[in-house]
Design brief:
alpha/beta; eight-stranded parallel barrel; four-stranded antiparallel β-sheet; elongated
Length: 341
């Protein structure tokens, strides 16, 4: 349920209203819109008398929210969420580029790539320490050692780091990680999502291979229901009948998610296509579609990469991608542009 307040509500009346709602075991999420203050109500709102609410002097209107996701809903939070990460931000008009190797292989490798992507304009460093692989015989990552090396690259470059968690048992190892990534296979690991809701760290959730946008937002809701509203959504391609690419990149997800939710939306063209030569056109298309950022796999020697070399681009190719992205950014789709047109 959403309570839209009149302009400049009387403070005492507002506090009385909030106290009454809390007495009904309703959780209140206030947010400031462009013209009105909005109270998002979460809980058993069937106990709330809508007619009584509407009759209050400070209330403009009351609406029921039909979607099952509440905290992540754009109706609850009209303004885009802006998430601080180190010295940068994600969302709210800023454009974030997360770049780095699929898997951390050595200190020399990760530090070399970190230095290169920072020089090209990356705002965060990605690197896999724990790797979920389809085959149990494939390289599984350096695990604890990989995290240590990733943090060394962070010290060297100052870039905030993003890396994937696979299991609750690993959470204590992520204290110095800036953004915890939930991979596509773990998107509906609800116990993990619940625990991440208590961390206070930014959580990047990748869309599952066969999940709808509503299911992605419900996964975000699990984290937000735990009190952590710092959630970043990532479109990384879905499984369809097409086999020419690793997955099918659903770029329509970007404007749709931006309409459905206030959370930042980024795109991973590397995992979506699985082909290095397709990273640039898909990165440019995602930028034009209004994404809040990109996640791109960069490797200094893709042919010898221990993981996903076929989809990794070189630092030189990454620099070229960044040039294209920067050229497109001023012309990217923004819903607010249409609203004021």
């Amino acid at each position: 349920m959403i309570v839209i307040l009149k302009k400049n509500p009387e403070e005492k009346q507002l506090q009385n209203l909030m106290a009454w709602l809390k007495s009904l075991n309703i959780t209140i999420h206030p947010s400031e819109g462009e013209t009105h203050k909005v109270l998002g109500l979460v809980g058993d709102t069937s106990v709330v008398d809508i007619d009584l609410l509407r009759a209050l002097d400070i209330v403009e209107d009351v609406k029921r929210v039909q979607e099952p996701y509440k905290n992540a809903n754009r109706k609850f939070h009209e303004q885009d969420t802006v998430i601080p990460v180190g010295q940068t931000t994600v969302g709210g008009g800023s454009f974030s580029v997360i770049a780095g190797p699929c898997s951390i292989e050595s200190e020399e490798q990760v530090c070399l790539i970190a230095t290169a992507v920072k020089a090209c304009g990356a705002t965060m460093l990605r690197g896999g320490a724990f790797k979920p692989r389809t085959s149990p015989y494939a390289f599984q990552g350096l695990r604890d050692r990989g995290l240590t090396l990733l943090l060394e690259a962070k010290k060297l470059t100052g870039l905030p780091v993003v890396t994937e968690i696979m299991d609750l048992s690993q959470l204590s190892l992520f204290d110095e990680v800036d953004v915890i990534q939930v991979g596509a296979r773990n998107m509906q690991n609800f116990e993990l999502l619940k625990e991440l809701g208590h961390t206070g760290k930014p959580i990047l959730i990748k869309r599952g291979l066969a999940n709808t946008l509503q299911e992605l937002l419900m996964s975000a809701e699990y984290v937000m229901a735990g009190g952590n509203d710092r959630v970043i959504l990532c479109e990384r391609g879905i499984r369809t009948f097409e086999t020419a690419t690793r997955n099918t990149l659903d770029l329509s997800a970007v404007p749709m998610l931006k309409r459905m939710s206030h959370l930042p939306v980024i795109v991973d063209p590397s995992h979506a296509t699985g082909l290095s030569w397709m990273v640039k056109p898909m990165a440019l298309a995602a930028t034009a579609a209004g994404a809040d950022g990109l996640m791109i796999e960069v490797h200094n020697d893709p042919k010898r990469a221990l993981c996903d070399g076929a989809q990794s681009i070189t630092p030189e190719a990454f620099r070229d991608v960044m040039r294209g992205v920067n050229a497109i950014l001023p012309h990217a789709y923004r819903p607010e542009k249409e609203a004021h047109a």
